[in-house]
Amino acid sequence: MTQKLWLKKPKLNYSEDVLDIVQFGSSVEEGKTPNDLDIAVIFNKIPLKEQLNQAQEIKKQLEKFVEISIHINSFDLYSLFDSSNFAKENILFFGKSIIHGDDFAKRFGLTPKIQIYYSLKKLKKKDKIGFNYMLNGRGGEYGLLRKHKGGLLNPGLIEINPEFENIFVNSIKEYKIDFKVKKVLLE
Amino acid sequence: MNKEETLIKAGKEYFHSGNDEFDKKRYNSAVVLYFKALVSFSDLYVLQKTGNTPSSHNDRFKITKEKFSEIYNLLDKDFPFYQSSYFQIMSKELAEVIKDDAKIMAEKTKTKL
After folding, report:
1. Can you tell me the distance from the alpha carbon of B25 to that of A181, in angstroms, rounded to the nearest whole number?
2. In terms of residue numbers, what domain contains A162?
3. Residues of B in contact with A84 (CB under 8 A)
4. Domain-terminating residue out of A56, A86, A108
5. How many domains does chain A have?
6. DSSP alpha helices (H): ranges in A32-164?
7. A69-104 pLDDT, tens per residue?
8. Could you read off the pLDDT of A172-185 as tens digits, one per residue?
């Protein structure tokens, strides 16, 4: 049973007060084993009691599609971006809309990307070649970039979708090189 | 004091302490206390219906999910706020919601607040 509800786009019943239903946290990140599934239900400005009751109904429907427990949060746009909401960056950047089957940030006209800057200067020649194989593949085998729809923007700079951050970072770490990760929202 | 009397006393005490904190605009404390009142009255309800009380949060969720879905819904809906009250700011509106839920359970168990 998949934990990637956003790819499955399950048919759900919800009211017009619901702006979006967003999956976020470790369950959307490749290479992680989530203990539970974080969901944010984004509402129009309606009373909190109503938000919580409706979110509970959505949770019941979602529970039929997954085996792990669901942790549901409800927000309106004010509470979503409130400074006390520590989850807001994660929801905005990594969140996947279960309704639209795409990045939640795209609802705001933004596309989230991870850019990784790296330098191979300290590597021996054979390790530079190995690193290149890792990214671009070898002998008909796909490398990480093709496998995960990433791109080489410049020498020393790749751009990938947020859900693949762990896979790339863990692979790059094996080469013990200097690298820097930047989260960007593109128009 | 038997189990039923203990749960009534504890639930009422949590509820009224919740009101005290609410009046002082300490909404995190109010949320915690109202939720504890909700749990006491939920356990009281289970005791009244089955003769037993849950021994843990897991047990409470299991019993109510199987036998008393309306109660389970209230607990399941409000529990995350109790859990996150250590590190998140709770609003007045949220405290009111959980207070109402505790009141619902007090009524179901015929407890006078």
Report:
1. 42
2. 111-186
3. 88-89
4. A108
5. 2
6. 48-63, 77-80, 88-94, 125-136, 144-147
7. 999 999 999 999 998 888 999 999 999 999 999 999
8. 999 999 999 999 99
